[in-house]
Amino acid sequence: MNSKITFTLFLISLLAIPSVLCQTQEETFNSELKVITDNDIFAVFRDSDRYYSYGMGIEYSFKTSKLLGLQKLFKNKKEVFYSLGAKIEGYTPSLVRVFATTPEIEDRDDFDRPFAGLLYVSLGTTYAFERSFLKSEILTGIIGPSSQAGEIQTWFHENITGDPVYDGWQFQLEDQFIINFKSSFTYDLHPKYKWFSTYIGGNVHLGNLYIRAAPKAGFRIGKFESITKSSGFENSLLLPKKHSEFFFKFNAETRFITYNATIQGNLFDEKAYGIDDLNNISWHLSSGLYYSINRLSINFIYLWSTGVLNSTENHGYGTFNVAYRF
Prior knowledge:
Blueprint: H1 2-25, E1 31-39, E2 51-62, E3 79-92, H2 96-100, E4 116-128, E5 132-143, H3 149-161, E6 176-188, E7 196-207, E8 210-223, E9 244-260, H4 261-264, E10 281-293, E11 296-306, E12 314-325
Antiparallel strand pairs: 1-2, 1-12, 2-3, 3-4, 4-5, 5-6, 6-7, 7-8, 8-9, 9-10, 10-11, 11-12
């Protein structure tokens, strides 16, 4: 009798295994909404409103069985999800606070870089593998007065922060349509480490917004999931339910730059206003704190770069992001 009971229980357990595995695979949320705020005012002990002055964006990530045939790529992938985003960015030259007290600016050549507004929407795909992931994104939008970046900064200064209103946006880069493609790959060097891990990777941008390539490397310290499920790599939609993260991440990359439309103007119009003397190699560092629990992810990242316009100049700004999964 005992042997029959044991055998019956064994059969039941075998039949239950597939359902348990399915439940395990479903222990993630299907959607995530993220709000992004970039501002160089977050960079303490530094001049604010300089170079990359501010950015505001929203991103919706989701899972679906089919989307434009993208689900058919990479048969060996473990997971795939998609993202839709929209963002506005504002770029200003150095010494804009001096320009704010100037009665009238007569010549845009006084600026070390142009005022530039950028507005775009994007579609991205993330393919997660065993110990790596591949992200691809296409964005389209506009650079110029139609982006409304100057008006938004002026409104915030007048109504929210009380900062000076900058005279100079009337000299911003002219309107131009932009389209750009970005692809990035990241590989985990220590996928089994629990409290410390390192990774390598790189990214490529092609289009009339950016043309550049950048190898990267970094590490994490703290409590974290694998890079394919971590908020530190914009993969928190794959973070299992009831799992949490709290860690520090440092990243370094070297950018080899051929073209930057926010500095150089229109790629296809030699007469368009822009700065030609772009440094083709720059170094970029980022360090951030990341926290995720249940449905919520919060992170703050400080980014520092050197050599974008000139080998002796550097720039810092911070980004604060909040994501909610459902």
